[in-house]
Amino acid sequence: MEEDRLSVDDWEQLADAVSILQPFHSATLRMEGDFAELHNILVELDFLQATFISVLQKYQANHHLHIRRAAAEGIVVLDKYRQLYKELTVYVAAVVLHPVYKWEYFEVAVDNPEWTEEQLQSAKLRVQELWQMKYMSVSSITGKDGEPQPDIPPPPATPFAAWRAQRQRTVIGNPTPD
């Protein structure tokens, strides 16, 4: 019976697993709801990548090798999807057209060191072509009554919200909160 009990180390590992998985659970909930926005897909992937990197750093000297391996594998999988999304113009355009991010999101390269100058220029050309072909002659978006769409209230404070706020401050050139 005694071998079926969890040790203190087992409980610590479970607590670590919960804290590691919480950002992924929250990201899943944000991306499956009615308020999921296209620009957030790349932003969420960058946030999750930053989370995995943080886990690798936190457990670098730790004896929990399985946690480091899982985080490293998570980075590999996220990189695969981030590379795919990077080639899809509509996702890049969604971030670029966001009033806070614009091109600076990719140019700052805080979490995007894989964006080479050539890839960035290619993306800029693709977004410009998309805009010229599909949207240049379209008027601004309005509600059913012809009035501009109302602002959506900000989401509650979460680790993702704090990360996104820091990223936004970095993009607009003010890395510290006001």
Tell me about this structure.
The chain has 178 residues and is mainly α. The chain has one domain. Helix content is 63%, strand content 0%. The chain is built from seven helices and no strands. Helix 2 runs antiparallel to helix 3, helix 2 crosses helix 4 and helix 4 crosses helix 6. The longest helix is centred in the first third of the chain and has 25 residues. The termini are far apart.
Tell me the total number of β-strands. Answer: 0
> How many domains, in number, for the residues?
1
Shape by Cα distribution: elongated
End-to-end Cα distance: 57 Å
| Low-confidence segments | none
Tell me the major beta sheet.
Answer: none
Any chance you could write out the topology, listing elements then pairs?
Blueprint: H1 8-32, H2 39-58, H3 65-87, H4 89-96, H5 104-108, H6 117-135, H7 159-171
Helix pairs in contact: 1-2, 2-3, 2-4, 4-6
Features:
elongated, 178 residues
Concise synopsis of the structure shown:
With 178 residues, the protein is an all-alpha fold.
